[in-house]
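step 4 of 6: structure.
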Amino acid sequence: MKSISAICLLCCMLLSSCNLIHGCNKLKHNFYEETCPNAESIVLAGVKKAQHQEARLPASLLRLHFHDCFVQGCDASILLDDTTNFKGEKTSVPNNGSVRGFEVIDQIKSELEKTCSGVVSCADILAIIARDAVVLSGGKAWKVLLGRRDSLTANRTASNQFIPPPTSNVTTLIAKFKAVGLSAKDMVTLSGAHTIGQARCTSFSQRLYNQSGTAKPDPTINKGFLQSLQQLCPQAASAGSSNFLAPLDLRTPTHFDNRYYLNLQAGKGLLNSDEVLYTTPGFTRKYVTKYGCDQEEFLDSFRKSMIKMGNIKPLTGKKGEIRHNCRFTNSGL
Ligand code: HEM
Ligand SMILES: *[C@@H]1O[C@H](CO)[C@@H](O)[C@H](O)[C@H]1NC(C)=O
Ligand SMILES: *[C@@H]1O[C@H](CO)[C@@H](O)[C@H](O)[C@H]1NC(C)=O
Ligand SMILES: *[C@@H]1O[C@H](CO)[C@@H](O)[C@H](O)[C@H]1NC(C)=O
Ligand SMILES: *[C@@H]1O[C@H](CO)[C@@H](O)[C@H](O)[C@H]1NC(C)=O
């Protein structure tokens, strides 16, 4: 008797406590197989259309998944619009005037609502889009784990706190990734997303004129590269020029390859947080060198780290909701 009840107790514990780490409702590949079998093809069509409209959009869309997952988990909190009595993440320091691509999400979501209303979460849309953005830019495919649900809230303070600033050194970068359960290797690998997309002068101009308050440029920048960036971003930044754009990968800005890591080795990383991965001796430099000479290794590691990032604290089961419009909670927040 005693052993039977002990076994029962153990069973109950296994059944109910499997959510201590990942939740009983773990993400899975075929989550929409029954409820919305065309979900992934609808998303892919939307991303293709966006890429055709503007070559930069895949990059902008990939970044949204990162900025979503680092703030209270991958729950589409970043997509909630500010309203008169609600201030969300879109206007946080890392996001304001910089995150983009929301119209693409709206378009894809409305297609999905037509086919299978109230089924596919905005958080999952972001995860699928991120994969498609990489693949359509030349990266390697992976199966996206699905079943995330959408948050009922957003958190601007957390957005400011958890997303690393572009002035970060290696210590800060590692710490910010560790805070969400990602390793230093994941950090170097995921930084390779900067093989596509653009950054505004305001994100790197301290390096051009006044690195760490020295009133001098960052000495690690390649001289010719420095001059061209100084031309693009004058020191007396008018309101306009601080928004001028430079490619994060100056050689192949719309192609998902390992050039980013080669740029770093040539002193041609755009952000401080990029270049320090190479100029700081140690672990991160080792990976920059490795990825620079082995594109396959980079692309394989990248998809592994993306799956890890996509697993950050998803809402599953009955938590959260499936939004009908990604910009607002269903109760209208
Ligand atoms: C390692 C720490 C990171 C820092 C400090 C950082 C910072 C930045 C900054 C400052 C920009 C330019 C924003 C602007 O000026 O408007 C940017 C752009 C971008 N970031 Fe990151 N980022 C990091 C990691 C990541 C990760 C993990 C991903 C995705 C997996 C990512 C994807 C992108 C993409 C694709 C762009 C270009 C977006 C566009 O063209 O619209 N970044 N990042
Ligand atoms: C966001 O940027 C806009 C335009 O650049 C600015 O007017 C606004 O004050 C910023 N919002 C916050 C919360 O910083
Ligand atoms: C928002 O994030 C901050 C910083 O991480 C945290 O202290 C605070 O509790 C969060 N607010 C809510 C309502 O979750
Ligand atoms: C890295 O940056 C942080 C925050 O700005 C600073 O406190 C720390 O001293 C820096 N660490 C190194 C090794 O430069
Ligand atoms: C350079 O930056 C430091 C703070 O980092 C600031 O005190 C100083 O005024 C700046 N100098 C110039 C020339 O902008």
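step 5 of 6: annotate
 - The first strand starts at residue 198 and ends at 200.
 - The domain at 25-162 is CATH 1.10.520.10 (Peroxidase; domain 1).
step 6 of 6: archive
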